[in-house]
Backbone:
């Protein structure tokens, strides 16, 4: 598979408010493949946001390289093109919506790209439809639920027709229902539109649905692999301050109690099936 | 003149606070005078000037002025020359005072910026209200003293505390305003 | 300090064209020493209800009585009442404002006009209760704390007022697993060791199941269910009908029951679920 | 304790009247013309015409008179004070004393001065209220952006300036909810906002203002990043989804405005100001 983003030996340091130097990324090397959905997980402060912000040139490498679709992030001339191809959705929907009208907010990105008016209208209609937001197009984001607001934010990025969308803890502020809504839509966009998706999260039942996962800690990548392979390693995951998905956690506990379950259970259905097949 | 994204966003959000203080009436501190209350709605403009420079101070003041024109809290603010025009200067003056005195001591500079910024608001608004004939000069002077002085004190203290507080959450290089 | 609510009604924007009724005839009693979880979909009125318990909102109909005092009584000392019923908001940034952790926690006691020694003692005591080491954190800048530490500092700031009832409004939202575990441990300890009555508002069914002894389910401004935690979670079909998610540990038992496995209990946490399933399978093996 | 209750930000009354259907630019320009005229009018007949004009506009827009007046009520005492101040304190050389009371004497010049400025603010208030009641804040900013755009030629960043207003409007309600929670969080720690003297009350501002401003600045930092991530670099290469179109109603309104302006200027020229 062809990588769309290639990170080589990336290091990033910043000065904190109290004047200390913080090493946020320490020698990170990784790839994001076209069309995949990749989860990046790790405790707060593990460096996952800092890493993701390099992918659309919000940060530029202090050392090492980040290549997006063949273009180096370090070169300022590439910034506009990179931001066109890599969109980003943030944690708090209130702090990323600009306009007081849903459809105008979704138009914000395409307007910034200087597209012709007819094209903007088409894209806004398409983005609204893709995320089932048509009914809210003339509403104010303030009147929507947090989950719906986050969908508006995703629609705003989608309308820019990026090749890749980064979602930086998009569900951390949402209630369980909103989390479900957002996750379902993200998975569907990845499947139907083929948009490469990078999901930053610490909800393991979201990670379960991803093609690949990366676990970060203290600015370094500690684990890379498929969720099925990595969640077998319960002790390592826990040592990095993360939970297992509930089903894996149950399976792990039951195995310790002597039940002969397979090690790579991810969902409740799999767990129940395995339990029922026990002799 | 060009405006960075940073200046646009911070002016907008400080402007929102100004409007908010007006619509919730929290921007009014009851002062023991017959005329009612002193205002702190101009504090965001002062902060804009001190923290982000004269342009942000000017725009924040303009939003404050425009809003008090569209939803006037006192009758003569329906006159744009009284509501909008004087507010353009609050943040700019605060910036100039801060810039001129920060070498001596930044705390002192904040106190002076807050006080002079506040006085700018009081003097220009009442001055325009007098020139435009809404208030006789005697009344303006007494309102100026009764309201202007407590406003000035509150603005000076709030500026110091807020500037110090906000700087704690920001990386160092962003902490001096760029003109 | 029992709380009694009778026929409580409340509307937002009352008297304007935008008036919206958010609480309909709510009646309930919360006794000393209870650990009550208030759960319900977003916008169901949980927070609005809880804000009546310490007179942050006043009823538009019915009454709220805390420790024998009507909150709507013009003679009631609301400041005193609010100190006895602590309220911690979801976002600690709404509350923290002082330079250092110690100063911020001291803010409540200062409002109570305590002397310096007493304040210092209280600060040290509550910091211990929330697991913040006094020597390490007393002088720490508020903004240099991690998410979990900030929330603990906010809880400490409310505890310092010596509340007899503590209302926690969605205090685990947005934390990572480790931060959430820290807070849950603190809350459990406050109830078990300090014997504080706790009212825990949450969107997370898992946390409510794990912590609370009694659960009140609110839907569309009305009490939907009210009872002991196990009784409530037995009624999973009803909970699902108002859009609530059932904790995974309970779902798995249900799924097994559908497949013909008979499991006796409703587990409230992971350990119980594991025990429950493991025991059932062991018995099955022995029977064979 | 419910702060958002009193927020009447841009109390827009949606409708389909002649005035509602006007392009926002037409309404802004028309309001601008009336406001400018009001700033120079010193004649009662001209005020009479303005009254008829504004009253007709209120009727056409279908705004209930009681509703239009309700916003005005709290200002009445101040208006009366303003008039009384001028009545007794305004001085000019040829003023005639109407009556005296203690050390004060009311003059005819003071009476007219008071009357003129009071009428002026009443009508100014009427015009801005009419504008905000019939135009949503969003179309106001759209109209403003379009009207200001010629100023780009002299180097003014008009799109960016309007963007600051768009952001301000978006954040007022968000910050209002936040403010409500901050105040409640501090009340729950024993702050009694309604107690104490001036100094004590002032001190109680800090535990509210500091979290409010800190949160506002944090939100600002996040919004800056979010806007940059969505390729915002200022107004230069931007296009717009919506463009405004002038219609027949705007032409009609334009003609009415020309007639109105001519009449007012004529009245200003032929009448002698009372002072």
Residues:
């Amino acid at each position: 598979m062809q990588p769309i983003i290639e990170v080589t030996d990336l290091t990033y340091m910043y000065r904190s408010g109290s004047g200390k130097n913080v090493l946020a990324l320490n020698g990170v090397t990784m790839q994001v493949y076209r069309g995949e959905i990749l989860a990046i997980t790790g405790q707060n402060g593990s460096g996952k946001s800092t890493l993701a912000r390099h992918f659309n040139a919000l940060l530029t490498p202090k050392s090492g390289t980040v290549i997006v679709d063949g273009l180096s992030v370090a070169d300022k001339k590439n910034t506009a093109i990179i931001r066109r191809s890599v969109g980003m959705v943030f944690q708090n929907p209130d702090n990323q919506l600009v306009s007081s009208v849903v459809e105008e907010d979704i138009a914000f990105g395409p307007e910034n790209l200087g597209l012709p008016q007819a094209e903007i209208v088409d894209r806004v209609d398409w983005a609204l439809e893709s995320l089932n937001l048509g009914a809210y197009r003339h509403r104010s984001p303030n009147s929507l639920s947090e989950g719906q607001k986050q969908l508006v934010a995703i629609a705003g990025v989608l309308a820019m027709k990026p090749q890749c969308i980064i979602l930086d803890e998009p569900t951390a502020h949402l209630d369980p229902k909103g989390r479900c809504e957002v996750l379902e839509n993200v998975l569907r966009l990845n499947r139907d539109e083929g948009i490469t998706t990078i999901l930053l999260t610490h909800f393991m039942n979201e990670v379960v649905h991803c093609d690949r996962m990366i676990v970060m800690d203290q600015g370094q990548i500690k684990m890379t692999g498929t969720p099925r392979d990595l969640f077998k390693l319960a002790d390592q995951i826990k040592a990095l301050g993360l939970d297992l998905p509930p089903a894996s956690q149950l399976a792990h506990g039951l195995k310790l109690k002597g039940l002969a379950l397979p090690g790579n259970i991810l969902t409740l259905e799999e767990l129940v099936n395995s339990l029922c097949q026990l002799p | 003149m060009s405006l960075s994204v940073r200046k646009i966003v911070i002016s907008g959000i400080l402007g929102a606070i100004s409007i908010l203080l007006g619509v919730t009436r929290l921007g009014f501190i009851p002062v023991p005078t017959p005329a009612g209350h002193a205002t702190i709605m101009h504090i965001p403009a002062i902060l804009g000037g001190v923290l982000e420079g004269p342009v942000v101070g000017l725009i924040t003041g303009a939003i404050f002025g425009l809003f008090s024109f569209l939803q006037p809290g006192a009758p003569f603010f329906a006159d744009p020359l009284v509501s909008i025009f004087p507010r353009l200067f609050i943040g700019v003056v605060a910036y100039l005072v801060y810039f001129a005195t920060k070498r001596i001591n930044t705390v002192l500079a904040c106190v002076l910026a807050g006080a002079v910024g506040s006085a700018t608001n009081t003097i220009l608004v009442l001055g325009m209200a007098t020139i435009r004939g809404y208030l006789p000069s005697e009344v303006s002077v007494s309102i100026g003293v009764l309201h202007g002085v407590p406003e000035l004190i509150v603005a000076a203290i709030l500026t110091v505390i807020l500037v110090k507080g906000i700087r704690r959450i920001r990386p160092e290089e962003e902490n001096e305003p760029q003109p | 300090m029992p709380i009694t609510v009778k026929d409580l009604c409340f509307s937002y924007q009352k008297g304007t064209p935008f008036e919206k009724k958010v609480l309909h005839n709510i009646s309930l009693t919360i006794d000393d020493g209870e650990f009550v979880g208030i759960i319900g979909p977003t916008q169901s009125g949980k927070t609005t209800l809880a804000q009546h318990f310490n007179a942050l909102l006043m009823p538009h109909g019915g009454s709220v009585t805390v420790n024998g005092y009507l909150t709507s009584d013009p003679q009631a000392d609301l400041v005193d009442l609010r100190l006895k019923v602590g309220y911690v908001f979801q976002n600690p940034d709404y509350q923290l404002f002082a330079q250092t952790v110690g100063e911020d926690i001291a803010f409540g006691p200062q409002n109570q006009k305590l002397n310096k020694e007493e304040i210092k003692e209280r600060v040290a005591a509550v910091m211990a209760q929330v697991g913040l080491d006094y020597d390490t954190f007393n002088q720490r800048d508020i903004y240099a704390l991690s998410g979990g530490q900030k929330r603990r500092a906010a809880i400490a700031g409310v505890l310092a007022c010596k509340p007899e009832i503590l209302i926690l409004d969605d205090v685990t939202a947005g934390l990572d697993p480790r931060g959430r575990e820290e807070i849950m441990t603190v809350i459990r300890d406050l109830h078990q060791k300090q014997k504080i009555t706790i009212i825990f508002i949450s969107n997370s069914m898992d946390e409510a199941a794990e912590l609370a002894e009694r659960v009140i389910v609110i839907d569309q401004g009305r009490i939907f269910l009210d009872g002991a935690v196990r009784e409530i979670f037995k009624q999973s079909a009803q909970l699902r009908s108002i859009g609530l998610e059932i904790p995974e540990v309970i779902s798995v038992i249900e799924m097994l029951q559908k497949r013909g496995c008979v499991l006796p209990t409703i587990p409230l946490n992971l350990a119980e679920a594991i025990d429950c399933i493991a025991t059932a399978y062991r018995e099955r093996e022995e029977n064979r | 304790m419910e702060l958002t209750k009193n927020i009447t930000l841009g109390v827009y009354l949606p409708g389909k009247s002649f005035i509602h259907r006007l392009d926002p630019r037409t309404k802004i320009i028309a309001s601008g013309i009336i406001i400018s005229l009001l700033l120079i009018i010193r004649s009662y007949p001209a005020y009479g015409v303005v009254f008829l004009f504004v009253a007709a506009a209120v009727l056409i827009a279908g705004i209930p008179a009681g509703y239009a007046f309700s916003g005005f009520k709290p200002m009445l005492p101040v208006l009366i004070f303003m008039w009384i101040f001028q009545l007794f304190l305004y001085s000019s050389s040829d003023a005639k004393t109407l009556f005296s009371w203690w050390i004060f004497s009311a003059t005819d010049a003071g009476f007219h001065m008071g009357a003129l400025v009071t009428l002026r603010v009443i009508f100014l208030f009427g015009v801005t209220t009419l504008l905000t009641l019939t135009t949503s804040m969003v179309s106001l900013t759209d109209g403003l952006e379009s009207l200001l755009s010629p100023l780009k030629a002299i180097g003014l960043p008009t799109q960016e300036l309007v963007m600051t207003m768009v952001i301000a409007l978006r954040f007022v309600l968000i910050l209002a909810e936040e403010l409500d929670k901050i105040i409640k969080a501090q009340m729950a720690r024993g702050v009694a906002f309604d107690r104490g003297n001036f100094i004590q009350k002032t001190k109680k501002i800090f535990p509210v203002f500091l979290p409010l401003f800190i949160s506002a600045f944090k939100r600002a930092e996040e919004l800056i990043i979010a806007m940059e991530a969505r390729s915002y670099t200022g107004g230069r290469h931007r296009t717009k989804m919506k463009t405004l179109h002038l219609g027949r109603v705007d032409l009609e309104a334009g003609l009415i405005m020309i007639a109105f302006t001519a009449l007012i200027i004529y009245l200003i020229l032929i009448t002698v100001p009372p002072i």
Summary: Strands of chain C lie at 3-12, 20-30, 35-39, 61-66, 69-70, 85-88, 165-169, 197-202, 214-219, 222-228. The mean pLDDT of chain C is 90. Residues 247-288 of chain C form one domain. The first strand of chain C starts at residue 3 and ends at 12.
